[in-house]
Each structure stands twice: as C-alpha cells, then as structure tokens.
Amino acid sequence: MGLRYHGDSEPIGRLLRASRAAVGTVWGGVMGAGPSGDGAGLTILVVDDDRKIVELVTLYLQKEGYHVLQAFDGHAALALARAEEPDLAILDLMLPGINGLVLCKTL
Q1: How far is CA 33 from the centre of its chain?
Q2: Is residue 69 part of a domain?
Q3: Structural domain containing residue 43
Q4: What is the reported pLDDT for 79?
Q5: Residue 38 belongs to a domain with what CATH number?
C-alpha cells in the first residue's frame, strides 16, 4: 500500500495539509464530523489532472474514513458531481475542459 510521490514533496505536503484543514473546518463546524478518522460516510470529490496528486489525496482521505470520488478533468468532474452529489469538492484551478473556478461556480 505504499503510494509514493517522487520529486519535491513539499508542495504535496502543503496540499494535503490544506485539504485536511478544509475538510476539518467545513465538516467540524457544520456537520460535526472531521478528519479524526470518523468520515461518517461523507463523500469528497477530488479533481486534478495530475493523477499522482489525486491518488495521494485519496489515500489520506480514505484513511480518515471518507468516501472519495476522483476525476481528472472538468467535464468528468461535473458529470460525477451531478450524479453522485458529493458533500465537498477539492478542485485544481487549472483543469482541462472546464477550469476549476468555472466548475466551482457551476456546482
């Protein structure tokens, strides 16, 4: 189960810390759940065109008990979000197809 990211890991670390903080803030304050291993069946959509980032973020979120949906471009993310209605989406801004900002406004 050793997914490893080779290269400069500091940007990945910052992304994971920010993602975890966002999840904790949103669910801790609004829904009473958070990144303490009690994802309670909550669903997060992770969208990035870099598959390694998506896989790494997915690994950490699943470890905390969240159900994770993955998409690698804006069109796929929009279709998946409409079909599955995730509780939270973590989006990259620079996506192929529909960029993350437009996708966020659409959702």
Answers
A1: 16
A2: yes
A3: 10-106
A4: 96
A5: 3.40.50.2300
